[in-house]
Amino acid sequence: MLDLFPSREVLLSIGPLSVHWYGVMYAIAFLLGLFLLRRLLPYRSLLLSKQQIDKLFVWIVLGVVLGGRLGFVLFYGDASYLSEPLRILAAWEGGMSSHGGFIGVTIALLLFCRRNKVSLLSLTDVLVVPIALGLMLGRIGNLINGELFGTVTSVPWAMSFPHAEGLRHPTQIYATLKDLFIALVCFGHLRMTAKTEKPGGTTATFLLLYGLLRFCLEYFREQSYAGTELAGVILSRGQLLTLPILLLGVAVFLWSRRKA
């Protein structure tokens, strides 16, 4: 039986099979990333064969999916995953972590670059543009699902969401605009530095912008987990996990300046 839009989260159901909006956004992000990757490689003078690009695509998909899922279980999961370890693989239940995805992709890129003798920072300079757009599509999926909404507010653009009382900050839209802005800035930086070929600068720009804007965005998001005190300041789970991204951005920036 074919059922179109059977629920807010599901686009299509065919018998027992359900196609979720979030999964559709992931698929679009991967295809868009593959399309852009081929066209952005020349900006860092990277010559990858079709076979290498296909392998890179597979490595990135595995890094995003496995890292995102394991990150969610480690950073946000509860004790039920210990008693039912097979649930860790049940990504269709929902639950992906962007920070876990970052870790998964980083490991995948390190392994790929080492095996294929490719400059890591040159490759990440190219990849951060489709990565930012992929994150943007993920936030659109969150908006459709009505999840990761903000705190109660009276701003004119406040929205109502299922299972949430009152009007809320549409933090999914804030995050969508954030990621689109990062993608545009990184693409501009990539183009401007194409001839100078200083690898790492675009990567540092992405990490610093994402870390700073994500940290600020957390102040508007409804928090489902207790905060953590660090140096006398209460930080949300998302802010705490974003600090290493900011520090990595500073390290990559200093390294790229040193190389230059």
In short:
The chain has 260 residues and is mostly helical. It has helices at 21-40, 50-76, 80-83, 98-116, 120-145, 171-192, 201-217, 237-259; strands at 2-4, 10-14, 17-20, 228-230, 233-235. Helices cover 61% and strands 7% of the residues.
Describe the overall structure.
The chain is mainly alpha-helical and 260 residues long. It has 8 helices and 5 strands. It has helices at 21-40, 50-76, 80-83, 98-116, 120-145, 171-192, 201-217, 237-259, and strands at residues 2-4, 10-14, 17-20, 228-230, 233-235. A hairpin with a 5-residue loop joins strand 1 (2-4) and strand 2. It is globular and about 55 Å long. The model has no long low-confidence stretch (mean pLDDT 88).
Key attributes of the depicted protein:
two-stranded antiparallel ribbon; single chain; globular; 8 helices; 5 strands; mainly alpha
SSE run: EEEHHHHHHHEEH
Unreliable parts: none
Strand order of the largest sheet: 1-2-3
- The N- to C-terminal Cα distance equals 61 Å
Average pLDDT score:
88
Q: What sort of overall outline do the alpha carbons produce when their principal axes are compared?
A: globular
- Binned, the helix content reads 55-70%
Radius of gyration: 19 Å
Number of strands: 5
Q: Quickly give the structural class.
A: mainly alpha
Number of helices: 8
Strand content: 5-15%
> Sheet bearing the most strands, described?
3 strands, antiparallel
